[in-house]
Amino acid sequence: EAGVAQSPRYKIIEKRQSVAFWCNPISGHATLYWYQQILGQGPKLLIQFQNNGVVDDSQLPKDRFSAERLKGVDSTLKIQPAKLEDSAVYLCASSLVSLPEAFFGQGTRLTVV
Amino acid sequence: RKEVEQDPGPFNVPEGATVAFNCTYSNSASQSFFWYRQDCRKEPKLLMSVYSSGNEDGRFTAQLNRASQYISLLIRDSKLSDSATYLCVVNRGDMRFGAGTRLTVKP
After folding, report:
1. How far is Cα of residue B42 from the mean position of the Cα atoms in its chain?
2. pLDDT band at A1 (very low <50, low <70, confident <90, very high)
């Protein structure tokens, strides 16, 4: 069974530029999460989708971050404009509604310079 | 108060040692609990779920105390390959992670 796919694996951008990350969850997983993991810290939940609806985006900095999951499968996370403190690994995870265990993609390592 | 708090670590132990990690959570409505393992520069991977009755998987034992809102992970006979960061995770409709506890097992 294919795992969670994310791209790109690495991205370097200048501050004030925009960037987008893509995630394809495990087939059949209705729940999709985006996490931000800063070096030395645990993953911080940014947004949770169930199918194409947002369940929780309380920790998403909405002035610069946006996410969508239009058809209830793939998802994109965008940052515009990026700040230095956005440098982190952005992890996508998915799970079944009936089983909460989440499975992660390899993440996108973002460096803002 | 953080929603999920873990021992800050790091833990440095010799091979064969027994090591225990503790975690507390603040939301009493939390429904399910997990331990994840994260190797350096890798994604988190599920280690085990945590049940009220306690559960064991080989050298790993997880315990949950709902009254005290406390979760633990015990690793017996630790191996070099157990070196990683261990993340406590609480599900209350979403998955909230602790900051992680780094374990280094030395020869």
Report:
1. 17
2. low
